[in-house]
Amino acid sequence: MSARARAIAGVAVMSALLVLYFVFAGIRAIALLASGEAVPVVMGAAMLILPLIGAWALGREILFGAQSTGLADRLEADGLLPEEPVATHPSGRPVREDADAAFPRYRAETEADPDSWRAWMRLGIVYDACGDRKRARAAIREAIALARRDRRTATN
Questions:
Q1: Would you put residue 93 in left (φ > 0), alpha (ψ -120 to 50) or beta?
Q2: Residues 6+ apart with CB under 8 A from 81
Q3: pTM above 0.90, yes or no
Q4: Number of other residues whose CB lies within 10 A of the CB of residue 124
Q5: Which residues, including other chains, have CB under 8 Å from residue 14's CB and lie 6 or more apart?
Q6: How far apart are CA 147 and CA 126, in angstroms?
Q7: Which residues pair with 94 in a beta bridge?
Q8: What is the pLDDT of residues 112-148, one digit of tens each?
Q9: CA–CA separation, 132 vs 92, rounded Å?
Q10: d(Cα 144, Cα 99) in Å, to the nearest integer?
């Protein structure tokens, strides 16, 4: 099974378990709301609100994953995926010196063409490979926004 297939299977299992939790929490919340007493009604309302927030967050993460995977697939089809070798420690964490050496090329590429979703996506992939998840997600979000803008511009 490929890494991508394992990731999709993991997301599917975790999403199914979370949805199951939402269902059980919703059933319990409705029972508390039906009690008519003040404290259980407040608890029931909270039990309805929290799963709604969780469902919203789950939806956002799945959408982000689908959009970023789509852009990575487009980069791969164009032969533009970053291929910087980054050594890792036995724990799987990247060697900091290798990670630092990978950034300048992709940062310069992005600074030279800040309206290119490809440049932002490549930068995000390098950040992710080097373990900088916060910057990776920010760069990939920018790539998604630019790709969406490019699609709207192309259809007009």
A1: beta
A2: 72, 75, 122, 125
A3: no
A4: 27
A5: none
A6: 18
A7: 88
A8: 999 999 999 999 988 888 778 899 999 999 999 999 9
A9: 13
A10: 24
